[in-house]
């Protein structure tokens, strides 16, 4: 008897009955609840602290500014020596410049030349801007009344000594390094960098630059994932390509767990014949196949291999990238000691139309042009060119929605993921 294909069912495009498709938010709160930091602590000099994650709250070793000083170039005086209307004060000899303080107190009833950043001589509580003064070098004349304390900076007005300046978990940026420097914090307790091993799986994969059989494709996920991990501020470890063979893949995972704190694999995560990732994680007893209600994506094979958490990402580069941004990145943040971080979400008008069915959250490759979100021509999850075309993602809610030009949509720029 010839085989006949099965009839198409009415619900053939519906989500499988009885299967629980985990909504994105539920998956995220599960992940958040189950993970904790795994990295140790080390001390690094300021020069090596960029992008590192603080292991402790940091306190200022010194006030900023350490002493009261002048905010402008002008003349320092005692407010009590001035009044309303035309004023004049004799100039005392000498001046106070940044790094070259006057070294003795103000002579009462005088003014003293003072430059920006210079320590206020004892007795000076107010500075008048040089542009508001006329002088012959012997005296200054100006109009009162002056505001007491004008153009001066109080000691500690920015930061008091001992104050908490940065919280544990903070990823240090350039401005943070300035704050640490200003308050004389030069040895910084930071988390060791999270090491993330990356393995590509699939017999079809070839290495860019090598010759490839016609049936092969070049491995796009490894460069994608390794460079994303670097941008997130973690240490990527390239484990290469594993074939679709269970024992070989087992060896890759063993080695990855040895050299990394966490493992990202791509491909072989579903439940098909060649889906050895999920089979191995199943064998190890730690596997949960999370069927995320997300497009592109699903399913995600989560497990623990020799103590290292494993994220088994889908092989499709688009799904691999989206799942990394949405699920793996916040998870890595927790493992790394940075805590759970939400991506930047902007609400912008759509430059496209789309009718979305309910049931899963959708991420579209998108970019902002003239303040509106435009999306890539195709939603095909194999379209790597669209990932590169895009500068972010549009996030469509789990429920149904009808979008026309101008409808407010949520845009997640790549930069908001540190990419
Ligand atoms: P899989 O999840 O292994 O079933 O793979 C899904 C799709 O993604 C297939 O078309 C694979 O050929 C493709 N794919 C898997 N891994 C990669 C990779 N590293 N680079 C590019 N495409 C891949
Ligand atoms: Mg595969």
What's the number of helices? 7
Structural class: alpha+beta
> Would you state the CATH class of the largest domain?
Alpha Beta
Q: What small molecules accompany the polymer chains?
A: adenosine monophosphate, magnesium ion
Helix content percent band: 10-25%
Average pLDDT, all residues: 93
CA-atom Rg in angstroms: 31 Å
- The number of E-state strands comes to 28
Shape call: elongated
Largest sheet: 6 strands, mixed
Number of domain modules: 4
Could you tell me the strand content as a percent range? 25-35%
CATH names the topology of the largest domain as Molybdenum Cofactor Biosythetic Enzyme, Chain A
Strand order of the largest sheet: 7-4-6-5-9-8
Task: Pick out the low-confidence regions.
Answer: 10-17
Distance between the termini: 57 Å
CATH superfamily of the largest domain: MoaB/Mog-like domain
Structure, briefly:
This protein has seven helices and 28 strands. It has 419 residues and is α+β, with helices and mostly antiparallel strands. The chain has four domains: 21-40 and 193-336, MoaB/Mog-like domain (Molybdenum Cofactor Biosythetic Enzyme, Chain A); 44-64 and 172-191, no CATH class; 69-153, Molybdopterin biosynthesis moea protein, domain 3 (Molybdopterin biosynthesis moeA protein, domain 3); 346-417, Beta Barrel (Beta-clip), CATH 2.40.340.
């Amino acid at each position: 008897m010839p085989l006949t294909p099965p009839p198409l069912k009415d619900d053939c495009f519906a989500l499988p009955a009885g299967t629980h498709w985990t909504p994105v938010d539920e998956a995220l709160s599960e992940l958040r609840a189950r993970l904790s930091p795994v990295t140790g602590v080390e001390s690094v000099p300021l020069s090596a602290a960029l992008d590192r994650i603080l292991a402790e709250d940091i306190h200022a070793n010194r006030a900023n500014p350490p002493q009261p000083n002048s905010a402008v170039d002008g003349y320092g005086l005692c407010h009590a020596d001035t009044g309303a209307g035309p004023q004049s004060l004799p100039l005392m000899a000498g001046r106070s410049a940044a790094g070259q303080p006057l070294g003795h107190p103000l002579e009462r009833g005088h003014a003293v030349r003072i430059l920006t950043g210079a320590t206020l001589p004892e007795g000076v509580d107010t500075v008048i801007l040089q542009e508001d003064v006329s002088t012959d070098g012997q005296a200054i004349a100006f109009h009162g009344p002056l505001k007491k304390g004008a153009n001066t900076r109080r000691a500690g007005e920015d930061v008091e000594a001992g104050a908490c300046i940065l919280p544990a978990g903070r990823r240090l940026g350039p401005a943070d390094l300035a704050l640490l420097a200003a308050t004389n914090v030069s040895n910084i307790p930071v988390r060791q960098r999270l090491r993330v091993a990356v393995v590509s799986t699939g017999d079809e994969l070839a290495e860019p630059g090598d010759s490839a059989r016609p049936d092969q494709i070049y491995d796009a996920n490894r460069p994608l994932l390794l460079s994303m991990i670097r941008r997130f501020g973690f240490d990527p470890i390239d484990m290469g390509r594993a074939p679709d063979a269970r024992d070989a893949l087992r060896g890759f995972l063993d080695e990855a767990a040895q050299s990394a704190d966490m493992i990202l694999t791509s491909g072989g995560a579903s439940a098909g014949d060649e889906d050895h990732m999920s089979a191995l994680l199943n064998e190890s007893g730690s596997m949960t196949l999370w069927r995320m209600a997300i497009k592109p994506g699903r399913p995600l094979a989560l497990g623990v291999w020799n103590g290292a958490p494993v994220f088994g990402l889908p092989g499709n580069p688009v799904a691999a990238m989206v799942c990394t941004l949405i699920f793996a990145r916040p998870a890595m943040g927790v493992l790394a000691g940075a805590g759970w971080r939400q991506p930047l979400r902007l609400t912008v008008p759509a430059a496209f139309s789309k009718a979305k069915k309910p049931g899963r959250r959708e991420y579209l490759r998108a970019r902002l042009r003239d303040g509106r979100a435009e999306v890539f021509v195709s939603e095909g999850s194999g379209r790597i060119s669209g990932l590169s075309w895009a500068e972010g993602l549009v996030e469509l809610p789990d429920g149904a929605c009808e979008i026309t030009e101008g409808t407010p949509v949520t845009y997640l720029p790549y930069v908001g993921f540190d990419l």
